Amino acid sequence: MVNSEKKDRIYLRNFSKVIFFWPLLFISFILWGIQLIVGEAIDFFGYFWVGMFFINIFIVSFDFQLTKVFILILIVIISTILIIILLMPIIDFSFIELNNMKLATEFYLSTTMILAFVISIAILNTRFNYWIIESNEIYHKCGLISKAERFPVYNLRIKKSIPDVFEFLFLRAGLIVLLPGNKGEVINLPTILNVNKKAKKIDLLLSHLQVGISPE
């Protein structure tokens, strides 16, 4: 009976953008482990970590649609090639030495612990703040003792989109917008993991009410 009830419910948990820092968490943990075994700071690791930090925070800060991503990559590649070609006859690059970016093992450990703590809190928050779609209503639970909101599922409209290709590649995340009833309510859930799978489940659950999903 319990399993049957769960199958008739779709849980939508909107995550904080901080969860997309999991690559930096993973890299910090790996670099910490390697330096712990080696017993000394490695030059290249410092540059690699800083590069990963820049890439990660850049991706989290902006939305990248698929077309924009290809254009951006093309611009970066062409610009880099042109800069190298123009500067090679003028500047002697021999002065660049990769020996001044050593980061301590404790730095990687501290970064790992901080990111793990913040991401864990973000995940825990979704256990107390979430939406449930059932065959007869939409249910919003927020907090431990706060009152829950309920919306009719009749005339529900749903929009699904993937505004950021990197977020989708990282965690299959995307946007789901719920438009319940005729009261002008708009429920924006911008960071739903496995968004395509969730959208298909909602469509299947509510198909008898003729609720469709319109991608943007």
What does this 3D model show about the protein?
- The protein has 216 residues and is α+β, with helices and mostly antiparallel strands.
- It folds into 2 domains: 19-125, no CATH class; 148-215, no CATH class.
- Helix content is 48%, strand content 18%.
- It contains 7 helices and 8 strands.
- Strands 1-2-3-4 form a 4-stranded antiparallel sheet. A 4-stranded mixed sheet has the order 7-6-5-8, covered by helices on one side.
- α2 packs antiparallel against α5.
- The protein is flat.
- Mean pLDDT is 80; it is low at 1-5.
The residue ranges in which pLDDT falls below 50 over 5 or more consecutive positions are 1-5
Record field, number of beta strands:
8
Instruction: Give the biggest beta sheet.
Output: 4 strands, antiparallel
State the separation between the terminal residues, measured CA to CA.
37 Å
Q: What value does the average pLDDT take?
A: 80
Number of domains: 2
Continuous helix count:
7
Query: Helical content, roughly?
Result: 40-55%
Give, in spatial order, the strands making up the sheet with the most strands. 1-2-3-4
Radius of gyration, in angstroms, nearest whole number: 23 Å
Morphology call:
flat
> What structural category do the secondary elements indicate?
alpha+beta
The SSE order reads HEHHHHEEEEHEEHE
Strand content: 15-25%
